[in-house]
Design goal:
Low-confidence stretches: 1-49
Oligomer: single chain
Largest sheet: 8 strands, antiparallel
Strand order of the largest sheet: 1-18-19-22-13-12-11-10
Radius of gyration: 26 Å
Strand content: 35-45%
């Protein structure tokens, strides 16, 4: 069985995004919150310890956890070169091993045992990486400390042997049978379904672990708290991939694809490679529950234990819209955190935060050992509260509800399961969102039309037309025509410079294009349809699904 979670999209805005988004509180809201040291909490995983220890075979450190897992680390590169669980080797494919980035190369590698913990330190230039084992635990604990931009990404990839775990799911393919359709990393199967390493389809906040199971053996990557990562809780990145050549499990902390934030630096971890007897990992090992007090005495530079961290708690949120989930975000240049707000009240609690000042609302100081409460925060500037003559979609910061939106986080737009990307709609009282395409491209469905009627009184006045977008490719943005009236060409907002719409991500910098359409533009006969035309414009060029494009959040005409 494959461990794949197809979590539906929901809304989030990163620090550069608008206050108007319904699900945002925190990273985009003006003000600060100061966090000082304080406590946090629970959970520990246990297992019976047997023979535990390490040896040096000349080229590698060999660590036996005493619980069925023996792993090896290269003394020259710091690569994780072997993972033997209950006598079976799982590590390596294509002549490559498991490592930080794409492999550090020549490094200084040392080992130290402290009681029932073995810690291996890998130093390569300004980057430091750590691997640890604990007696009786079938886990490899990892940390990465990146000090600067000498590496362009921050990731750890576990490379696993082929043929052990099932090769299934949207992030799997068969190179010997499937056809590459884009950039060497998107594949089409014989049945027309598309597959890619980009199509795990899950936001950071929606998973604690990712991996595979045979039913009798499971191997999982348990993510860290991502405090030093970039992109916020709704960021999607590589999680895993599989094909007939091998399997990959990822911990991605900074990846340039669809990225809206600058890289953060410093120690990140622990994240874990965890073996199980087929089931999912112990919840006590998740980033939210892991008792890391055992790390405090290891002397890892930059490590901040529970006693050096703080907590922020909010009484609630006022002005929440029914039927929507809310997320509270905290961010600064050094760290990021988030917490889910309770349905109904909006109460939230975010613990384990590094001391510092974070973007939130107002100013709050958190002191050691206490929980500082924020009074109820009133949400304002929700664009969905503006009275509209008509509205297509919802101002939720996502293309959710539009045609093909549910498919696009785990498939390519050319997938056979996608409905035709055309999308002319007639507004005669019904909800047409499901007929309106979630993405618009200059080279695919340019010139989508919206037909609507106005009363004589409505046509006698100017109205504001709003088009909300969530990201763009090649600076694609909508220019509008209403009957014979043509808007100016809008300036492009700041968006990620990489692929997005074709690799499972609609998340960029949310932006609203607003046009005041004069009364002279409207049809004065209430029986006649006005025609809104959306054209994608850009100074860049491309073809098909790699032509300039954008993801739609909402389109409306205000009263």
């Amino acid at each position: 069985m494959s461990a794949y979670d197809d979590t539906p999209a929901s809304a989030y805005d990163t620090a550069a995004q608008s206050l108007r988004r319904r699900t945002l509180l925190g990273a985009a809201v003006a003000g600060t919150a100061a966090v000082a040291a304080g406590g946090l909490g629970p959970g520990t995983a246990t297992a019976a310890a047997t023979a535990f220890g390490w040896s040096d075979d000349g080229g590698q450190y060999v660590v036996d956890t005493g619980a069925g897992l023996v792993f090896k680390v290269s003394k020259s590169t710091g690569d994780l070169t072997s993972l033997v669980y209950k006598g079976k080797e799982y590590e390596g494919y294509g002549g490559k091993h498991s490592h930080v980035e794409s492999g550090l190369g020549a490094s200084t590698v040392t080992l130290k045992q402290t009681g029932s913990t073995v810690l291996i330190t890998v130093v390569h230039g300004t980057l430091r990486h750590y691997l640890a084992a604990r007696s009786g635990r079938n886990n490899v604990y990892l940390w990465t400390d990146k000090a600067d931009t000498s590496f362009t990404a921050t990731r750890f990839i576990a490379r696993l042997r082929p043929g052990i775990f099932p090769n299934e799911g949207p992030d799997s393919w068969v190179e010997g049978a499937d056809t590459v359709i884009e950039a060497g990393d998107v594949w089409r199967r014989a049945d027309g379904h598309t597959r890619s390493k980009h199509y795990s389809g899950v936001r950071v906040m929606d998973y604690e672990h990712i991996g595979y199971t045979t039913g009798s053996v499971g191997l999982w990557m348990i993510r860290s708290n991502h405090e030093k990562a970039s992109g916020g809780p709704f960021y999607r990145s590589l999680l895993r991939h599989s094909n007939e050549l091998g399997v990959g499990l990822y911990e991605i902390l900074h990846y340039n694809q669809s990225q809206t934030e600058a890289m953060r630096f410093g120690l990140q971890g622990p994240y874990l490679l965890a073996f199980t007897d087929g089931g999912t990992p112990d919840p006590a090992l998740s980033a939210a529950n892991h008792d890391t007090s055992w790390v405090d005495g290891l002397g890892i530079p930059g490590w901040v234990g529970a006693a050096g961290r703080g907590r922020v708690a909010g009484v609630g949120l006022a002005g929440m819209a029914a039927g929507h989930a809310y997320t509270v975000g905290f961010a600064n240049a050094e760290a990021q955190y988030w917490a889910r707000a309770a349905a109904g009240t909006g109460a939230f609690s975010c613990r384990g935060m590094l001391p510092g000042t974070y973007t939130l609302t107002g100013s709050v100081t958190v002191t050691a050992g206490t929980a500082t409460a924020l009074h109820t925060i009133t949400l304002t500037n929700d664009p969905s509260t503006a009275p509209a003559l008509w509205r297509i979609g919802d101002w939720d910061g996502t293309p959710g509800g539009f045609k093909n939106a549910a498919l696009m986080t785990y498939a390519h737009p050319a997938d056979v399961r996608a409905a035709p990307w055309t999308g002319n709609v007639v507004l005669d009282g019904g909800d047409v969102s499901a007929s309106f395409p979630c993405y618009l491209w200059k080279g695919v469905n340019d010139g989508v039309l919206v037909y609507f009627r106005l009363t004589a009184a409505q046509a006698a006045a100017a109205h504001t037309l709003r088009i909300g977008v969530t990201t763009a490719f090649l600076n694609g943005r909508p220019q509008v025509t209403v009957n014979d009236w043509v808007s100016t060409i809008p300036s492009p907002p700041t968006q990620p410079s990489t692929r997005s719409l074709t690799n499972g991500s609609y998340r960029g910098n949310n932006h609203t294009f607003s046009h005041i359409v004069p009364a002279s533009a409207w049809k004065t006969d209430p029986s006649q349809y006005n025609v809104l035309k959306l054209n994608i414009v850009s100074g860049s060029s491309g073809t098909g699904f790699l032509s300039p494009g954008t993801a739609i959040d909402c389109v409306d005409l205000l009263v």
